[in-house]
Amino acid sequence: MPFAASPSPRRRPILPMATLSALLAACTVGPDFHAPPPPNSSRFTETALPVRTASAATTGGEAQRIASDRDIQGEWWELFHSQQITALVTQALKANPDVAAAQATLRQAKETMRAEQGALLPSLGANLQAERQRESFAALGFGNGSATFTTYSAGLNVSYTLDAFGGIRRQIEQLGAQAEYQRFELEATDLTLAANMINAAINEASLQAQIDTTREIIKADTDALNLTKSRFQLGGVSQVDVLQQQSLLDTQLATLPGLEKQRQQIRNQLAVYLGGHPDQYTTPTLDLKRLTLPTDLPVSLPSKLVEQRPDIRAYEALLHSATAAVGVATANMLPQISLSGSYGHIGSDIPNLFTPTGIVWTIASSLTQPIFQGGTLTARKRAAQAALEVAAAQYSSTVNTAFQNVANALVAIERDAETLKAALAAQKTAASSLTVARSQYTAGAGTYLNVLTAEQADYSTRLNLIAVRAARFTDTVALFQALGGGWWNRTDVDPKVAKCCGVLP
After folding, report:
1. What is the rounded distance in angstroms from the CA atom of residue 307 to the CA atom of residue 63?
2. Can you say how many angstroms the Cα of residue 216 is from the centroid of all Cα atoms in its chain?
């Protein structure tokens, strides 16, 4: 549309007002926030990890493949292909009070920011007043008479603080950053809860498997003790053999209460994760043998980790808040300009209240410049600058810890796969050794001490194999948690927030 050669008189004031608004918008004191660049790292670990881990012919022994530069699905816990795990996590995310508290805190932060946004607009108020009073003529020198009358007034009051140096805008920016911090604190709460829930369920399954194995061992030891006692009565073995077998049984019996205690305590924790009490938790224990180990592990690039980890994003928001706080402290040292006005009517009765003769109005402006505050404002600015340095250091520390978490998880996935393979081999060797020791003892070619030693080795390797098998599952959980958990791909995440991670188009 072409511009008019000569604007109408009604439109001429718009140009200077628009120019003034543009100048005020451009005049925002203090440093502008820029997100720190991602670390210049090509990998997470000191040396390149193998693409494929070792495998073992047992439950949870599948080889896992590291798929670099792959995105993580939002509901990453579904990769375990366990309806029970999915149900537990889903229920926990809905019912856990920590999640509810984080959601309410986020709403509070957003409303606080919106409340501050109102300071950019004029405030308008209305008043209606009726006053009846008595005046003495003596005060005016007209004798001792008096008069009683009533006055009515109605009007509007307008006030506006001109944000000439951007102090209000910086305050809004700071509150917005604090709301962003709470946004990612909510994501961190969800991620931590999901990881803790899965780990607890896996650990309970591991303890249950150890309890079942220990009971099998106790039964076998009891049968062996009864057999040894029978042989002792027949003179086939010595009393030392009986006592040694009794000692082995007592040792296994002593481990069972500790395993039961740990399992029950984990079930109590699971109940709390679900937002309930221990007496309300009736979910059956997960069967570790039916759990599927994810074989394809999507690992994002190191440069994307700072966008995906909720804790890094939270500390980035705190850095943003600290940056805006410097601008607030700077603006407080500069002049504050305020405009105010009122318009109304006054009259001696209601019918005369809105007559032209009853119109009253005022227009006022003020400029306040701090001159001497005992160094308070300067000290507050220096404190804000120091807080900015603190936030920058904390952000850097959070990034370093995040990279360490991912590296630790990747190394654990590689090494624990090797550990499981070795543990399986050790268990098979111990079982074969026990079979040979029993055969030799039955044939009279070995001692009963050899049998007891072989039994102890077999029991130890069987229980260790269960714990190592469970570790592969918890290692996988740790990796997903360290990478951020794929929150940006969940359907309940604000697309504007997810878009910042480069996930959405």
Report:
1. 29
2. 42
Reference 387, options 329, 326, 315; nearest CA is 326
Mean pLDDT, rounded, for 437-459: 88
Q: Is 374 left (phi over 0), alpha (psi -120 to 50) or beta?
A: left
User: 115-141 burial, b if ≥16 CB within 10 A, otherwise e?
Assistant: ebeeeeeeeeeeeeeeeeeeeeeeeee
What's at 359, amino acid-wise?
Answer: I
Inter-CA distances, 269 with 87, 207, 257, 284, Å: 16, 14, 18, 14
DSSP secondary structure code for residue 236 in this structure: S
Asked whether 345 and 359 are in contact (CB, 8 A), the reply is: yes
3-class secondary structure, 34: coil
pLDDT in tens, 389-406: 999 999 999 999 999 999
Distance separating alpha carbons of residues 479 and 8, to the nearest angstrom: 67
Identify the pLDDT of residue 20.
Answer: 44
CB atoms within 10 A of CB 98: 16
d(CA 278, CA 271): 5
Judged against a pLDDT cut of 80, whether residue 288 lies above it is answered with yes
Q: 144 by DSSP, 3-state: which? A: coil
